[in-house]
């Protein structure tokens, strides 16, 4: 069955490109500042979150600029009609980053509704292991030890070593728990900030409105059982997607690149990309003889 198109209308997001792009070398009369040795890509998985993006983009550009971090923001919008798949969007964003930002040597998988408030949170190159900025003792909502969601910084090699994230998590939750297992099995140590002057009440601004942005907690078919097992079959190497649009989104003079993508679903691998109630029911068709033809079953 075909999925309903839920793309963000182009007219909403096409904006003039930012005029003040960062140059490789910034020259003044007295000094020449060399290009930084590392470049960060923020990979932001979303579905129709324009309002949050217009706040996120200038805020993060300023926050990172204050730290001297050179960055690009890549927004990966899921425009198909399948259930939301955060991990596949991150996998897709990683692949697109390697094409469109070849000088980016590390990235952050970054929720759009989580803004850092404490400048002590450093978005620096995670040379000693993945850096989980939204750590359990700092995140406003999730405090369990194995939590690695929200904001996680990795190098390209760290992400590729575990084949990225699983593609079978449609709907909300558990994809980051499975990613935690991947990191642990690869003996990769997760780093977390310490000795901050803030805690879970004031380190981040959490912009999620549960009444407006209802999360899809449903389980269908054998999804729950499969979601609790380590996935050895899928990852960044076989995420299936196509780019249906690429746009510049500008807010307060700061720009990001938005990729509107359609994920593809192998329903033999993860039939829960659509629950039964999501699948359009075929209408009965009347033949020339007047008899009603029964619709074909959707497998």
Looking at this structure, what is the CATH superfamily?
Spore Coat Polysaccharide Biosynthesis Protein SpsA, Chain A
Biggest beta sheet attributes: 7 strands, mixed
The 3D shape can be described as globular
Kindly estimate the percentage of residues that lie in beta strands according to DSSP: 15-25%
Spans of at least 5 consecutive residues whose pLDDT stays below 50 are 4-30, 295-299
Radius of gyration: 21 Å
Top-tier CATH class: Alpha Beta
Percent of residues in helices comes to 10-25%
Total strand segments: 13
The overall pLDDT, averaged over residues, is 86
Q: In CATH terms, what is the architecture?
A: Alpha-Beta Complex
Keywords: Glycoprotein, Glycosyltransferase, Membrane, Signal-anchor, Transferase, Transmembrane, Transmembrane helix
Subcellular location: Membrane
Pfam families: Glyco_transf_7C, Glyco_transf_7N
Membrane topology: Single-pass type II membrane protein
Describe the structure.
It contains six helices and 13 strands. With 299 residues, the protein is an alpha/beta fold. The longest helix is centred in the N-terminal third of the chain and has 17 residues, at 50-66. The strands form four sheets. A seven-stranded mixed β-sheet has the order 7-8-5-3-4-11-10. The chain has one domain (36-293): Spore Coat Polysaccharide Biosynthesis Protein SpsA, Chain A (Alpha-Beta Complex). Residues 130-206 form the Galactosyltransferase C-terminal domain.
């Amino acid at each position: 069955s075909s999925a309903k198109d839920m793309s963000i209308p182009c007219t909403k997001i096409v904006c003039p490109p930012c005029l003040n792009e960062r140059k490789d070398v910034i020259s003044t009369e007295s000094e020449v500042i060399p290009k930084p040795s590392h470049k960060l890509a923020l990979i932001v998985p979303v579905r129709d979150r324009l309002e949050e993006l217009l706040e996120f983009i200038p805020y993060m550009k300023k926050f990172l600029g204050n730290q001297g971090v050179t960055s690009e923001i890549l927004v990966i919008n899921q425009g198909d009609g399948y259930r939301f798949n955060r991990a596949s969007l991150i996998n897709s964003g990683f692949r697109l980053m390697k094409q469109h930002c070849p000088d980016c040597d590390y990235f952050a998988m970054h929720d759009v509704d989580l803004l850092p408030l404490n400048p002590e949170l450093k978005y620096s190159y995670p040379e000693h292991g993945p850096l989980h900025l939204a750590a359990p003792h700092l995140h406003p909502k999730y405090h369990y030890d194995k939590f690695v969601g929200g904001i996680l910084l990795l190098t390209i090699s760290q992400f590729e070593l575990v084949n990225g994230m699983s593609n079978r998590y449609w709907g909300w939750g558990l994809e980051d728990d499975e990613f935690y297992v991947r990191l642990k099995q690869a003996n990769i140590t997760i780093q977390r900030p310490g000795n901050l002057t803030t805690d879970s009440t004031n380190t981040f601004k959490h912009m999620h409105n549960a009444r407006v942005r209802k999360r899809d907690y449903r389980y269908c078919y054998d999804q729950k059982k499969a979601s609790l097992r380590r996935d050895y079959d899928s990852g960044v190497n076989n995420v299936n997607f196509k780019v249906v649009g690429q746009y510049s989104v500008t807010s307060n003079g700061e720009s990001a690149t938005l990729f509107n993508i359609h994920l593809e679903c192998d329903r033999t691998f993860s039939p829960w990309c659509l629950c039964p109630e999501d699948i359009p029911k075929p209408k009965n068709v009347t033949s020339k003889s007047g008899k009603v033809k029964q619709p074909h079953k959707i497998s």
